[in-house]
Amino acid sequence: MNGDPVLELSDIQGNILRGYRRFTFAKFMLFRILSPDAGRKFLQRLIPFVTPGEWGDTPPRGALHIGISFEGLSALGLPSECLASFPVEFQEGMKARARRLGDIGSSDPKYWDSPWNTQRVHVVVMVYAGSDKQRQAHCDQVSAIAQDVNPAADAPLMEALPHQKAQWLKINGKRSRKEHFGFEDGISNPDVEGVPDNGPGVDIGNPDDRGMFRKIPAGEFILGYPGEGGEVAPMPLPHALGRNGTYLVIRKLEQDVEGFRRFVEEQSKLLKKVPNGVKPEDFLAAKMFGRWQDGSPLVIHPERPAGDRHNEFKYGDDLAGAACPLGAHVRRANPRDSLGFDGKLVSRRRLIRRGIAYGDYLPEPKNGHSPNGQAQLQSPRGRKPRESDPRGVMFLAFNAGLDQFEFVQGAWISNGDDFHQGNDMDPIAGSRCNRRMMIPGDETAGRPPLLCHDIPRFVTTKGGDYFFVPSLTALRLMASGQVRVS
Ligand code: HEM
After folding, report:
1. According to the model, what pLDDT value does residue 366 have?
2. Is 199 contained in some domain?
3. Among 283, 312, 464, 472, which one is least packed by beta carbons within 10 Å?
4. For residue 372, how far is its CA from the centre of ligand 1 (angstroms)?
């Protein structure tokens, strides 16, 4: 937009606005700060390794990013006026917000994995690399720095908590962008004003009133810039601390792959008029996601996958959901134009997603499931992956206000009211209080509707929290111990 400030990419941490398709390996290193002084030294030593969003001509060979929780900011000794200026969702943290996020039953924080279940993580250092070896080398550097700021080994001042490895899945010997249920992931992200093209041109803006898409103002994702309404989102004090920073949602979401496969196999037997050449279970799974496994959107390719990861589509011509059900995962998570009002009800609910899988892919058994339900195939490394091995996605979402994420998670994933689906939840990511999903019929194809029932829980929350992702300037300010509000 004319007259708007230029996005200061060199001050903004790089994984917020730019996808890392080249880095297939990541590690989330988690720490607690036991002395403000050690915390500041830790930041000071890490700052030279933090990757900014401005790369010039040469993309980085690896990347490192830092997020700090509310308790982490407090442990760094930030003044109370500064702490009090952060939004309430961030101050309370994810665990305290469990009910509104649908983290109930087996997703209740008391069942989360260590360290998320017992204490609040203070700092997350996100390490990205192109190979396992490089990842290890970068992580060794970070661990050495954390140890360095500890003067005595028996009384650590930076406590290393259990870390989390994550990497693209290896399927049939090749690294793949698919998630564990077998669907191409990381396709659709917001197209943000002022950001260099992320590559294959799949980022998508918000619907405009001419029936097209327009780029999204940076203020929806970065503090200090105008957002959709032209205003700047509330910033923590002092402004030098908030500007060019944002909030990060991390959720460790465990996936029940065997349960998902068994469900679609069983329930797809009820489907009528499945398109020729398409397996009923693939058709049902696509209806639940809103895209086929290869990423082709149902709204453009309703009858069969087409190897087309198209992202410039709307739902306005499919208001009844004959092609893509109203309750499908991608349609709930980004309803585009389907709620009317030229997309205005949706335009402030966009999330930048940077999730990455953890755990080994469970190969599909060649001859269906064994009697006890365990997949029996060898993994690529010769080890038998078991149904019970933990696997899932480290879900990462950036937004300039955590209300953006909480709305999508609380109102659209965990409830169906906005989509005329009553209290039906998202069939993939919902916590399953109401176990149904309506798959509308398709008159043109002569296909009757199907009410999916007894949908079990496929995704369980195993941890997470809200983090502030400061600009490089703010990191330096915090490391100097000079944060002053007046
Ligand atoms: C384990 C849980 C989840 C799985 C397996 C999953 C999988 C997927 C897949 C396969 C896609 C389509 C590919 C793409 O556009 O990148 C997608 C899209 C998306 N998901 Fe999820 N997802 C999960 C949880 C969530 C949660 C919890 C949220 C939000 C709170 C979310 C928000 C989105 C959004 C915003 C999109 C893009 C929709 C669009 O722009 O068309 N997802 N997800």
Report:
1. 72
2. no
3. 312
4. 30
- Distance between Cα 333 and ligand 1 center (Å): 7
Report which protein residue has its CA nearest ligand 1's atom 25.
429
Asked if 464 contacts 254 with a C-beta cutoff of 8 angstroms, the reply is no
Band of residue 136 on the pLDDT scale cut at 50, 70, 90: very high
- Tens digit of pLDDT for each residue in 121-132? 999 999 999 999
Distances 39 to 111, 114, 149, 304, 473 between C-alpha atoms, Å: 29, 22, 8, 54, 17
Examine the pLDDT at 459 and tell me if it is beyond 80.
yes
pLDDT at position 370: 44
DSSP label at residue 217: P
Q: Do both 420 and 278 map to the same domain?
A: yes
201 in any annotated domain:
no
Instruction: Name which residue sits closest to atom 32 of ligand 1, judged by CA.
Output: 333
Is the C-beta atom of 75 inside 6 A of ligand 1? Answer: no
The string of pLDDT tens digits covering residues 218-245 is 999 999 999 999 999 889 999 999 999 9
Q: Is 458 in the pocket of ligand 1 (CB under 6 A)?
A: no
Contacts of residue 261, Cβ cutoff 8 Å, sequence gap at least 6: 281, 364, 369
Which residue CA neighbors atom 19 of ligand 1 most closely?
330
Q: Is the pTM of this model over 0.90?
A: yes
- CA of 187, closest atom in ligand 1: 16
Bridge-based pairing state of the strands 352-353 and 459-469: unpaired
Any domain includes 195: no
Residues 293 and 273 in one domain: yes
Tens of pLDDT, residue by residue over 314-339, are 999 999 999 999 999 999 999 999 99
Q: Is it the case that residue 188 has pLDDT exceeding 70? A: yes
Residues 234 and 348 in one domain: no
- Are 228 and 269 members of one domain? no
Q: Is the shortest distance between the CB of 330 and ligand 1 below 6 Å?
A: yes
Rounded mean pLDDT, 79-103: 97
Q: Which pair of structure tokens corresponds to residue 108?
A: 């209740």
Whose alpha carbon is nearest atom 27 of ligand 1?
429
Regarding whether 307 and 239 lie in a shared domain, the answer is no
368 C-alpha to ligand 1 centroid (Å): 27
DSSP of 406-428, one letter per residue? HHIIIIIIS--GGGT-TT---TT
Q: Is the CB of 413 under 6 A from ligand 1?
A: yes
In angstroms, what is the span from residue 334 Cα to ligand 1's centroid? 9
In a domain, 295, yes or no: yes
3-state secondary structure of 43: helix
How many other C-beta atoms are found inside a 10 Å radius of the C-beta of residue 188? 22
Q: Which domain holds residue 31?
A: 9-168+218-243+469-480
Q: Is the CB of 187 under 6 A from ligand 1?
A: yes
Whether 253 is in the pocket of ligand 1, judged by its Cβ within 6 Å, is yes
Same domain, 222 and 118: yes
In terms of domains, do 272 and 404 share one? yes
d(CA 57, CA 54): 9
- At 200 the pLDDT is 58
Our count of domains for the chain comes to 2
- Measured from the CB, is residue 206 less than 6 Å from ligand 1? no
Tell me: do 152 and 277 sit in the same domain.
no
Q: Is the CB of 395 under 6 A from ligand 1?
A: yes
